Amino acid sequence: MARCTAPVNGHRSAAAAANCPACGRRGRYSGSSGYSPYRSPYSSSPSSYGSGGGRSSGDGFSGNARPRWSSAGSSLVYTQAEVRALTPVRENVEKRATLDLRDVFLCHAWDDRQGVAKELHDLLELKGVKVWFSEKDVGLGEPLMRAIDKGLANSRIGLVLVTPALLSRLPAEGIADKELSALLAGERLVPIVHNTTYEALREVSPLLASRSGLSTSEDTMANIAAKLAELVAI
């Protein structure tokens, strides 16, 4: 059986590897161009390096990617993590494409209704997204819970605006909690984290924190609205 000569000649170049009776033969069979100092010649698979020790550029968490629903002329930049998180939601959008529904249901804390929630609503509507928003869709004298149930049933997906105000209200199990329960029942939920973190969310709602989404710490609200508009466009 041929033995590797690395202990004697070293494999610091392609020529040294080619002259090795063990590694040179393996290179001819596998099509390898030579020895890489970052890959062990004894590994059973070239992809075994880094597969269990940490994140790499191919694990879906780093680098950029273009989702299949993004238009060819789009200038939006998505991370691979965002594409992974949004793909199941997009599949539900496509399944419900033929139904006469609002595009999104916007779940938010009451304290945010005139602030960041309205900002997101306005940005979405400028992009042509049909939004169910309590500030305009709950009629005078209409029971709030009934209106929310109707809004959830008649929207393709849900957006949850995660802010410090929402985190403070979730433990009370109020209306926002009812909305979240319905949205978490299927792959129709996109959390949007604003002025807080997923770590803070995890302390209040581990289930909601398990869903990846979008964050204003990584992108502007305008770009997030544009990504959501692409997500629901049919």
Summary, kept brief:
This protein is an alpha/beta fold and 234 residues long.
The tally of beta strands, per DSSP, is 7
How would you classify the helix and strand content by structural class?
alpha/beta
CATH names the topology of the largest domain as Rossmann fold
For the biggest β-sheet, the strand order reads 4-3-5-6-7
Gyration radius from CA atoms, angstroms: 25 Å
The fraction of residues in strands falls at 5-15%
Shape: globular
Mean pLDDT over the residues: 77
CATH architecture type of the largest domain: 3-Layer(aba) Sandwich
**What would CATH call the homologous superfamily of the largest domain?**
Toll/interleukin-1 receptor homology (TIR) domain
The largest β sheet comes out as: 5 strands, parallel
Under CATH at level 1, the class of the largest domain stands as: Alpha Beta
Q: With helices defined by DSSP (H or I, 4 residues minimum), what is the helix count? A: 12
Overall tally of domains: 2
Range of helix content: 40-55%
Question: What is the H/E string?
Answer: HHHEEHEHEHHEHHEHHEH
Provide structural commentary:
This protein is of the alpha/beta class. The chain has two domains: 43 residues, no CATH class; 169 residues, 3-Layer(aba) Sandwich (Rossmann fold), CATH 3.40.50.10140. Helices cover 41% and strands 12% of the residues. The chain is built from twelve helices and seven strands. It has a five-stranded parallel sheet. A two-stranded antiparallel ribbon has the order 1-2. Helix 5 crosses helix 12 and helix 7 runs parallel beside helix 9.
